[in-house]
Amino acid sequence: MTSLLARTRFSVLDRSRTREGHTDAEALRDTVRLAQEAERLGYHRFWVSEHHGVPGVAGSAPTVLAAAVAGATRTIRVGTGGVMLPNHRPLVVAEQFGVLEALYPGRIDMGLGRSVGFTDGVRRALGRDKEDAEDFGAQIEELLGWFRGTSPTGVHARPAEGLVVPPFVLAVGEGARVAARAGLPMVIGDLRDRDRMRRGVDRYRAGFRPSPWADEPYVVISGTVAVAADPVSARRLLVPEAWSMAHARTRGTFPPLPPAERVEAMTMTARERDLYTSGLAGHIAGTEEQVAAELESVLKDTGAQEVLVTTSTHDRDALLDSYRRLAAVVGTVDGAHR
Predict the structure, then answer these.
(1) How many of the other CB atoms lie within 10 Å of CB of 253?
(2) Is residue 257 in a domain?
(3) pTM of the model
């Protein structure tokens, strides 16, 4: 383990991906169990995500799931990666995180994104459209105002007002500029396009304005990291997600994760094969030594303070083994939270 890896925080984002042959309820329980394992292994945070109307994802209510995770753990920070702010009224989001922070003081993070839905149908069901994302900066400002008690309406957000829940901005598109202007920590992905990631980080640091929430830029880089005993086994961890993405882009539906062996036996169309192969590329995957070297390279390149790992696969035992191997590589093992 290098000194760079040792001084970098490592955290986990789980999207509650459903697995072929398993139910949504099982996926949610798997998320809670993974959080308990992440805590035992010493990861710094455990975040959950928000997706609506996606057949292969059970995580649709992140603050509810975060409450379940926080209730099942004791020390690890718990949050969202993220709540999609255009889908909700800022007052309601403030109240929800206020409740979480009141129940689990000092452990709650508020990751905020600007996506307004996977499809037109989902956006209609949410009563939103793409233009709603254009007000992201204003929505963040209103949300943080509820915690500071500066709303001009005369209404007070209970129990949020006066509480400190660290906010993070998911930097998709304009997100880096929004985070910089608001003086908030930024989460940026993905590791597959490192030039784009570096440009986003540079733009964020150049435009950062200190705020009550952060004195200086704080960068979290996010992506898939898969660790196994050999490179072939590590690559196989990526197979189910790569196929699900290829399936979604060719057939319009995002399916539950299939077993890797079934994917490898498939006869694919040329376009499916191209998308599938592309989906396997660019991630950090390999043995402990290979992964350590790649992580050190991307950390040197970006200067990030934290890595948020968001790996999904069908084989839950292999996924847990990957997180255990990664913890050993980066020095979080034995509960050494930093």
Answers:
(1) 12
(2) no
(3) 0.93
Can you tell me the distance from the alpha carbon of 56 to that of 70, in angstroms, rounded to the nearest whole number? 24
pLDDT digits (tens, 9 = 90+) for 152-196: 788 899 999 999 999 999 987 678 999 999 999 999 987 888 898
Domain that holds residue 41: 3-224+304-310+326-330
Amino acid making up residue 246: A
In DSSP terms, which residues pair with 78 in a beta bridge?
46, 108
Please identify every stretch of the chain with a pLDDT value under 70, giving residue numbers as ranges.
1, 52-53, 116-123, 125-134, 173, 333-338
Q: Give a yes or no: residue 275 inside a domain.
A: no
Identify whether 177 is part of a domain: yes
Cα(191)–Cα(309) distance, rounded to whole angstroms?
A: 10
- 30: domain CATH number? 3.20.20.30
| Structural tokens at position 218 | 């704080």
Task: Taking the CA atoms of 15, 42, 66 and 126 in sequence, report the sign of the dihedral they define.
Answer: negative
Q: How many H helices and E strands in the chain?
A: 13, 11
Q: Tokens standing for 150?
A: 């500066």
Cβ–Cβ < 8 Å for 226, 284: yes
